[in-house]
Amino acid sequence: MNSDFIIPPKQGLYEPITEHDSCGVGFVVDIKGNSSHQIVRDGIQVLENMEHRGATGFDAETGDGAGIMVQIPDQFLRDRCEKIDIELPEPGNYAVGLVFLPKLVEDKHRIEGMFERTVNEEGQKFLGWRDVPHYSDVLGQTARSAEPELKQIFIARGKNTTPKDFEKKLYAIRKKVWLKISKSDIQQKHYFYICSLSPNVIVYKGQLRAIQLSTYFPDLSDLEFKSA
């Protein structure tokens, strides 16, 4: 969701320009590059230990945002994609992104179509969408009222695109899609947001408290979900 949707307008003594992030950040890695689910669990534990860096309002179950960035869990995603007829290329030759989309079905489909066309225009191959499992019941009332649809998009590297240029293409796709949607007449375009789009890492995040993240996204609790 964009900042206009989240931050209230200037009023009284309140100045939106004074808003700034005060995030707590932690890092957990395997220095030998060995992927495991334990790394993910440790990362979540670090996040939960920084619960005090987050904030809530009158709705104590609505946080100001929490998330985790991990190495793409290739085998986990490969298994899930196989079940929905998405065939992934070798690691490094495809990208995955977590995308927030409108609840309104017509608007969601329009944005998906714009995204897919932009991928093809940039010489890359759109592979498909995956619905991201999530448990809305853990959200506070405020967060639930603004909750978007959550999907992962899969994009294969184009035949004429080098691995180095692939990341540049993904950046261009991200910017062009954002520009097209921001200029469109889509009613719920404020829901649209690309959390990440990369051949290396993926982000899971939302308007959550730190302690809600792993429950909200069951992917993160699966033993096959691994990172280094």
Task: Note the main attributes of this structure.
two-stranded antiparallel ribbon; 32% helix; Glutamine Phosphoribosylpyrophosphate, subunit 1, domain 1; four-stranded antiparallel beta sheet; single chain; 228 residues; EC 1.4.1.13; alpha+beta; globular; 7 helices
Can you tell me about this structure?
GO terms for molecular function: 3 iron, 4 sulfur cluster binding; glutamate synthase (NADPH) activity; metal ion binding. It comes from hydrothermal vent metagenome. Pathway: Amino-acid biosynthesis. InterPro entries: ET-N_metabolism_enzyme, GATase_2_dom, Ntn_hydrolases_N. Its cofactor is FMN; [3Fe-4S] cluster. The protein is α+β, with helices and mostly antiparallel strands and 228 residues long. The chain has one domain (22-221): Glutamine Phosphoribosylpyrophosphate, subunit 1, domain 1. The protein has seven helices and six strands. The protein has a four-stranded antiparallel β-sheet, with helices on one face. It has a two-stranded antiparallel ribbon with strand order 1-6. The longest helix is centred in the C-terminal third of the chain and has 20 residues, at 163-182. It is globular, with a radius of gyration of 18 Å.
